[in-house]
Amino acid sequence: MQDTLIPCAEPQPAPVGPLGRHATRAVAVTWGDRVVTIGGSSPVVVQSMTNTDTALAIDTAIQVKDLALAGSELVRITVNTPEAAKEVPAIREQLDRMGVPVPLVGDFHYNGHKLLTQFPECAQALSKYRINPGNMGGGKKRDDNFAQMIEVAARYDKPVRIGVNWGSLDHELMARMMDENSRRAQPWPAQAVMREALVVSAITNARRAEALGLGGDRIVLSCKVSHVQDLIAVYRDLSSRCDYPLHLGLTEAGMGSKGIVASTAALGVLLQEGIGDTIRISLTPEPGGDRTREVVVGQEILQTMGLRAFTPMVVACPGCGRTSSTFFQELADDIQSFLRRQMPIWREQYPGVESMNVAVMGCVVNGPGESRHADIGISLPGTGEIPSAPVFVDGERTVTLKGDHIAQEFQAIVENYVARRYGAPLVVQD
Fold this sequence. Notes:
Blueprint: E1 26-31, E2 34-39, E3 45-49, H1 57-70, E4 74-78, H2 82-97, E5 104-108, H3 112-118, H4 120-125, E6 128-131, H5 139-155, E7 160-165, H6 171-182, H7 190-211, E8 219-224, H8 228-241, E9 247-248, E10 254-255, H9 256-272, E11 278-279, E12 283-284, H10 293-304, E13 313-316, H11 327-349, E14 357-361, H12 367-373, E15 376-379, E16 389-393, E17 396-401, H13 406-422
Helix pairs in contact: 1-2, 3-5, 6-7, 7-8, 8-9
Domain IspG TIM-barrel: 36-298
InterPro entries: Dihydropteroate_synth-like_sf, IspG_bac, IspG_bac-typ, IspG_C, IspG_TIM, NO2/SO3_Rdtase_4Fe4S_sf
EC number: 1.17.7.3
């Protein structure tokens, strides 16, 4: 029997990149001339939060500055006591004196309605409020407290993130929905009811805020949970049922690699599907650890996905038996650190430099090829190879470095390349 050949369709290139962004309203968060837009057609915004006692104004202002210089476009501070609320204007004033116009977001729970009312200077110094409806009491008390906060936000024209959290979900809403679920012919699992309650709480409170006089373009929503699959499910559902811009993040991502992996796994899926307008990576810092790490991780998630560019990226091989020397690892780390240190200056002087790719490779197997594909790259000698390091610029081999000062010489080549490629062209006067 003769085989029947099934004609194949002409191959087409596979689609690359994330799906189109879900259409959301645009919310402007401002301080002075600085405007950070969440949603609409704006890029995904990276934000972070201080862990200082806000009542210590200088300590808090310094950490806000560090986070802003690292690239945090919004910085949230805790406002939990009268002492903290009193210091918010001083923090804002100190930041302005230091030339740090990053908008401040006030994080309120339990007594936020009192603090915003009793300390109008605090309410005005903040650029945005984060409120949690689940931490405002119950019944009429909750409704009154929520209305009081929304009234202040509307009075000063401040945007609000209504942040629902599964650790502090409205108990009355949850109890009612569990009762309704028990009457279903086929009841949902308890976890599914919880996810539905998060979405319902967020949307219901957003609509109530609008009914109370807050503009629909002044509201951002979040539904924070701790587990990756729950977060993905909740935000898929939430994004299909409203057009408010969405803040993404696990509520407690964890420490070290666990927190980074969990955040990347959850946010990577959602961002690929076009869901999410602003992100925060809630890493637990190691004792004495650098708070800015969560900003770097957030930026790197967006940059490695091709959604934004923040700083030149270094491609480096992982090393193997061909590269028993640690020299290429040390050079890759030095170059990446050097690029990050330079970015606050380069960002102003050399527009576009954040998209530059640098390769630091360790042997002849992939080294020359990867270096040619990068904007600028170096292929270091592996074990037993000739002790020379060819440098490639825009795909062309330009020089070979040798000796004990390869690191310094390559760094100088990178600096010259940046100035030449991204610097402003000279204007010739007639």
